[in-house]
Amino acid sequence: MDPLFRNLKAIIPIAGLGTRLLPLTKVIPKAMLPVAGKPCVQWIIEELSVAGVTDVIFVYSKGQEMVREYFAEKTWYDEELARRGKIEEAKKLEAIRNLAKFQFVEQKDLLGDGHAILQARTMISQDEPFLVILGDCLYHGDQPVKKLVDAHEETGSSIVAVQKIPAVEAKNYGIAEIKDNTITALIEKPSYPYKQANSYNLALIGRYLLTPEIWPHLELCLKKSGEARLIDALQSLIQQEPVLAVELSGVWLDSGTQEGLAQANSVLGSF
Asked: Can you give the pTM of this predicted structure?
């Protein structure tokens, strides 16, 4: 296994309220909503585990404590399974806890995904790159983590995963403008129509490999506006150094809406 994989940490921000999925998310964190028989975010943990990344930092908010219970703690449920002699069932839960080394940090003020990432700063060495995987963006195929790592090892730059989407859908996502694999601009949910002459645009799909150079840009965004969004910090970073894009061609599923959650269940349930 590549040394970077062994040392690479992944931050998974899951602290959002999930308002697009109400009323379910009033009592169930959107990261824990079921997709093809398991919690949404477990698909991401398994993706990381298969790639060799086993150090995961969850950034959560109030009301999402069940994520910690599910992935990292033995509870009364495990004890009850043992008491009843449900050995195989208990092993399934143990296997989930063994997928990674899990750490948790609370985002007490919901001030954007960049602010969530900042909460994990003390858990990342000052000189090491790290992954960010958004908790409602699922992916199947095309080895996104490996491609991010390979691109970083070749260039030393921050790497952003992108995928082609129909131009008419650009208004729903962050969009990257790219020249020779280098990102020249990032636009958050551009007004429709966006570059109507094009048949597609390149959307950000919630997978990033970031260098330590991103930290001051996240801090600056927070200081300027009172919140920090990752897309704004990256837009600031590209003014100083190259940030590259790697284009993927697998199956990207945005599970953050009712329609997307239904699609994720349908697609991943068939694999």
From this structure: 0.93
Q: What is the pLDDT of residues 132-161, one digit of tens each?
A: 999 989 999 899 999 999 999 999 999 999
Q: How far apart are CA 224 and CA 111, in angstroms?
A: 12
Q: Which residues of the chain, if any, have pLDDT below 70?
A: 1-6, 192-199
Q: Quick one: which H or E segment has residue 75? A: none
Q: How far apart are CA 84 and CA 228, in angstroms?
A: 48
Q: How far is it, in rounded angstroms, from Cα 186 to Cα 232?
A: 8
Report which of 148, 112, 150, 114 is spatially closest to residue 131, judged by C-alpha positions: 148
Radius of gyration of the chain (CA): 19
The residues, ordered by sequence, that sit 6+ positions from 108 with a Cβ below 8 Å of its Cβ are 61, 62
Give the pLDDT confidence of 89-98 residue by residue, as tens digits. Answer: 999 999 999 9
Q: Is 37 left (phi over 0), alpha (psi -120 to 50) or beta?
A: left
CA distance 248 to 66: 32
End-to-end CA distance of the chain: 26
